Amino acid sequence: MESFTATQDLDAVVIGSGFAGLYMNYRLREQLGMDTQVYEAGDNVGGTWYWNRYPGARCDSESYMYCFSFDKQLMQDWEWSGKYPEQPEILRYLNHVADRFDLRRNTQFNTRVIAAHFNEATHRWEIETDKGDKVTAKFLITGIGCLSSGQIPNIAGRDTFQGESYHTGAWPHGGVNFAGKRVGVIGTGSSGVQSIPVIAKQADHLYVFQRTPQFTIPARHHTVDKAFLDGVKKDYDAIYEKARWSNGGLPIDPIERSALAVSDEERLAVYEAAWKEGGFKFLFGSFFDIGLDRRANDTASEFIRSKIREIVKDPDVAEKLVPVDHPFTSKRALIDTDYFDTYNRDNVTLVDIRHAPIQEITPKGIRTEDGEYELDIIVFATGFDAMTGTFNRIDIQGRDGEKLKDKWAAGPLTYLGVTTAGFPNFFMITGPGSPSVLSNMPVSIEQHVEWISGAIAHMNEQGLVVIEADESAEKEWVAHVNEVAEQTMFMLADSWYLGANIPNKPRVFMPYPGGVGAYRQKCNEVTEAGYTGFTISKGEPAVAQ
Ligand code: NAP
Known about the structure:
By secondary structure, this protein is α/β, with parallel strands linked by helices. The chain has 17 helices and 20 strands. It has three domains: 8-149 and 386-537, FAD/NAD(P)-binding domain; 152-214 and 331-383, FAD/NAD(P)-binding domain, CATH 3.50.50.60; 252-326, no CATH class. It has helices at residues 19-31, 48-51, 72-77, 87-100, 190-202, 226-234, 236-244, 264-277, 281-284, 294-311, 315-321, 339-342, 389-392, 404-407, 441-462, 471-486, 516-528, and strands spanning 8-15, 36-39, 107-108, 113-119, 124-129, 134-142, 164-167, 182-186, 205-210, 216-218, 334-336, 348-352, 358-361, 365-368, 371-374, 377-380, 395-397, 426-428, 466-469, 534-537. Strands 1, 2, 3, 4, 5, 6, 17 and 18 form an eight-stranded mixed beta sheet that branches.
C-alpha cells in the first residue's frame, strides 16, 4: 500500500461484529470515547451465529452463561428459553445487544477488511476494505472468530455434483428443504453431530459419511426451569465471577477427586449420574484427571463406548460408531441430542469412510470404495481452517512489511494470545495462544476486550503511542502453551486444534489449555507489573517497561 490516501483517520478499527466485535466497539466508543469504525462481512451482527444457521445449531454452553456480563440490567432483562441456546435465539440476543447499545451506528456491513499495514513513520495502521474504503487507525483489533473460515475438502469431482451442496458454516438464510430428499452429510464433528439428528427427521434418507467416530455426551436439552433462572439472576454476579476463575469459563466447582482413586462402583455411579444430567459436567464435574491422565481417561472413554453399544441396536453399526483411535477429550468434547439413537432409524445409513474412503464426488452423489451413493443434497460438516485461517485471508503487515502469514508459517506466535511481536497496536480478541475455543467464549471474549481496553486506556492516560509485545516474552509464552498442551490428551488425536484438518497446515496446538482462571491471573499480573513483556513508547525513542 504505497502512498496511502485515507478518507478517515480513526482511533480504532475493529474487524467483526460478533460477540467480540460488539463488546469491543462498546468499550472503545462508549467507555473510552474513541472514534471507532467496525467492519463486518455479514449484512448484520452475529458473527458465528450469523453464519452457522444449519439445522440443530445451538451452543454447548448453558444459555445463562452464554451471554455478556458487562451490563447487569441486560443480564436481568434477557430471558433464555432453553437449557442450551439455539442459534436463532443467540442471534436475536446479539441483535438485541446491538440495538440496546446502538452498536450498528459505526458498523459498516457487507465489508471485508482485505489489508492492514502498519506504517512505522506515522505509527498508524493503514486499512483497506473490499468496498474500497481506505482509513488509518491508531489501533487495529480483530474480533474475527476462531472458526470463521469454512473448509470444504478438495475431493475429486467436487464441482461436478448436480444437486445442492452446503457448508454448515455458510448456511442459506432461507433454510434448506430436506423433505423427500436423499441427503449426504460429510463430517461428524460438532456441526455434524448437531445437524444429523435433525436432518434425519426431515430427509427421505440420510447417509452419514463418517471418517472418525466421536465421543459425545447427551445434552439433555430441555426448557429452562423458570425457578432455576430466577435463582441464577439473584446470584448472577457470584455465578459469573466463579466462571471467570474456573477452568472452562463455566461456574462448575473444581473437582479434586481422581478417577483412579475410587472404587469401580463409585466411578460408575459418578459417570451414570453425569450421563443422566447431561452436558459438560460429565467432563468438568466428574474427575479432575480425565483430560490429563490416560488411565483415568480410559475409564471415561470406556464408559461412553459402553453407552454407544447400549443405545445403537445394530451391533455392526454400533462398532463403527465406537471411537477406538483416540481418547475422549483429545478432540473437541461434544454434547448431542439423540445423536447415537439416530442410527436406529430406518432412513439413516452410516457410511464408514475410514475403511472405504470417498474416491470422488460425482454428478449424482458420492462414490466411496464400496460404491456410489446417489444424493440430492450434500452437506459439508467438514469444519474450519481454525484460529489462523481468517487471519491468513487478510494481508496483515507489521514492522518492516513483515506479513503475519509469513511470521506464522510454522504456527501462530503470540504473546498471551492477544498480541504478536512486530505488529504494534494490534490486538486479537481470543487469538491463538489464549483459552478461546477451550472455554465458554463470552467469558474469554469479555476478559480480552477488557484487558485490551485497559491497555489502551493506560496508553491514552499516559500519552503513549505504541504498544508492542517483546519477542522474548512471546517466545516464553509460546513455549508455555506447548508445555501445557503436552500434558493433555489433546496431542493424541488429529484435530483442528492442531491444524490437522487442513492439508499442509503446521501441526501446532493453537489454543491455551491452562484454563481461563490461570490465564486471567497471568494477564492481570502482566498489567499490574506495568505491562511486562511489552514495550510501550511515545513513538520514538522506545521506553522499555
Ligand atoms: P470439525 O470438528 O472440524 O469436524 C469436521 C468433520 O468433518 C470431522 O468429522 C472430520 O473428520 C470430517 N472431515 C473433514 N474433512 C474431511 C474429509 N476430507 N473427508 C471426510 N471427512 C472429513 O468441524 P465442525 O463440526 O464444524 O466443528 C468445528 C468446531 O466449531 C467445533 O469443534 C466447535 O468448537 C465449534 N462448534 C461448536 C458448536 C457448539 O457449540 N455446539 C457447534 C458447531 C461447531 P475427522 O475427524 O476424521 O477429521
